[in-house]
Amino acid sequence: QSALTQPPSVSGSPGQSVTISCTGTSGDVGNYDRVSWYRQSPGTAPKLIIYEVSNRPSGVPDRFSGSKSGNTAALTISGLQAEDEADYYCSSYSSSSATYVMFGGGTKLTVL
Amino acid sequence: QVTLKESGPALVRPTQTLTLTCTVSGSSLTSFGVRVNWIRQPPGRALEWLARIDWDDLILYSTSLMTRLTISKDTSKNQVVLTMTNMDPVDTATYYCAQMGRGWQFDDWGQGTLVTVSS
Prior knowledge:
With about 110 residues, chain A is mostly beta strands. Chain A has strands at about 10, 20-25, 35-40, 45-50, 65-70, 70-75, 85-95, 100-105, 105-110.
């Protein structure tokens, strides 16, 4: 069982917006702006799309945005495109005694 | 941006020790800000962070696995090595190395190497 909770799947039609949530605790998401998001297509390595809650690396379209409220972070993808279909993972620094980095269980985005 | 590439055996037997190598190019392992991590992903499952080694030799481990893990670096070859002892079939996974930025994000990833544990 992953430490950060994500919905297993979300879906949307082309042009719509979808939001993927990532819920942690005060020991990770809630008290640290060290939340990042990754996109992973089948058979490939994850790719960073958001870091420090809401920052986009160069080359990532502004259709991708991140936010945080309390213990929950969120990734919003607007203007959905067919190529956005992939698995999305959140990650956070953690002050837990168990680990320094938590990952979410992943969310499969289906573009209808 | 750094480029990372993992290498190691595709198959290991239960109870054996796994040794994986991450070859880094584009930056020296002793350069400020270089933080190389190991992350694994069992087939069809989520990512799991394992360990990290920094340019200044800071080392961090996942507590749940730290008794089985050793991370080190060979600066002459610009390589980071991860060993994991007492391998079990549940350790079957794709193992990635990745460069971490100062915000604890993984900026760059290797292609990954699939390790199967089976007798």
